[in-house]
TrEMBL record:
GO molecular function (one): ATP hydrolysis activity
Organism: Sinorhizobium medicae (strain WSM419) (Ensifer medicae)
Protein name, UniProt field: ABC transporter related
Alphabetically ordered keywords of this record: ATP-binding, Nucleotide-binding, Transport
SUPFAM superfamilies: P-loop containing nucleoside triphosphate hydrolases
Domain ABC transporter per the UniProt entry, residue ranges: 15-246
Listed CDD domains: ABC_NrtD_SsuB_transporters
Lineage of source species: Bacteria, Pseudomonadati, Pseudomonadota, Alphaproteobacteria, Hyphomicrobiales
Family stated for the protein in its record: Belongs to the ABC transporter superfamily.
Length: 266
């Protein structure tokens, strides 16, 4: 855990009193999805966001990604207001992250291509990230030739190859089977330990959040406000599924976060 960052370091992302409203002009409807949310995401921390369905987790991600603007309040990165999407913020979604007509190598190299990096350089760089995701053997394969877990590892490699300042993940492992999901979580922590980066990870799974995070932000039922932040001080070298589920600290933190999510009195 990046304790220095959490106890006085610099926030990478600062959200202040942010309200996000989805407006449907045709139907003359508006829907307040996030209300008066204040939250910092510290440099190189792994922050998980949990909360009841519809509480605004994905909407929060959209604002940091620059896909939508707050109606009131602010969202900044390194002190600068976020006004549009940018390569400095990478997003991994649950599905559709890879272009089906491109190989793993071309998918991972795509962002570098857009930035004008010459072919040999971008392929060498992409292969480094592919190796990190343990996909070297699959570099020339197309997404439909990969398992769901391999596809998500490729999606993470593609995002990290763009060297963003923050990687945001919206339920990235929700579509894979339970066993694959556990190994993807361990793999993600291995990669993150080797490549420190700020991570915002959205999930429905309290266990997943407590396993991965430095801190878990629990939102209230929609419109989402911050209910509580729970610090997860389980040592990084204890984050293995074969042992952690019998660790009393893990059990206590999981139960605490679960109680916060289930309490509907926002
Ligand atoms: N494009 C949109 N137009 C109108 N309302 C929207 C739109 N997208 C989301 N909403 C509404 O905003 C609220 C928050 O949705 P959001 O998807 O951010 O929640 P969530 O916490 O990510 O949900 P889930 O856990 O079910 O994925 C919900 O009431 C949803 O119906």
């Amino acid at each position: 855990m990046n304790t220095a960052a959490l106890t006085g370091g610099t926030p990478k992302i600062s959200i202040r009193d942010m309200t996000l409203v989805h407006v449907n002009e045709e139907r003359r409807q508006s829907n307040v999805s996030v209300e008066n949310l204040t939250l910092d995401i510290m440099e190189n921390e792994f922050l998980c966001v949990v909360g009841p369905s519809g509480c605004g987790k994905s909407t929060l991600l959209s604002a940091i990604a620059g896909f939508m603007q707050p109606q009131t309040g602010t969202v900044t990165m390194n002190g600068e207001r976020i006004t549009k999407p940018g390569a400095d913020r990478g997003v991994v979604f649950q599905e559709y992250a890879l272009l089906p007509w491109k190989t793993v190598l071309d998918n991972v190299a795509l962002g570098l291509k857009f930035r004008g990096v010459p072919r040999a350089d971008r392929e060498a760089k992409a292969m480094e990230y592919i190796a990190m995701a343990r996909l070297t053997e699959a570099a020339k394969k197309y997404p439909h030739e990969l398992s769901g877990g391999m596809r998500q590892r490729a999606a993470v490699a593609r995002t990290l190859a763009n060297t963003p300042e923050i990687m945001m993940m919206d339920e990235p492992f929700a579509a894979v089977d339970a066993q694959t999901r556990l190994s993807l979580q361990e793999e993600l922590l291995r990669v993150w330990n080797d490549n420190p980066i700020t991570v915002l990870f959205i999930t429905h799974s309290v266990e997943e959040a407590v396993f991965l995070a430095d801190r878990v932000a629990v939102l209230t039922p929609g419109p989402g406000k911050l209910r509580e932040i729970v610090e997860i001080d389980i040592p990084r070298n204890a984050r293995h599924w074969d042992t952690i589920t019998s660790d009393p600290e893990f059990i206590a933190l999981r139960d605490r976060v679960m109680a916060l999510v289930r309490d509907q009195n926002g």
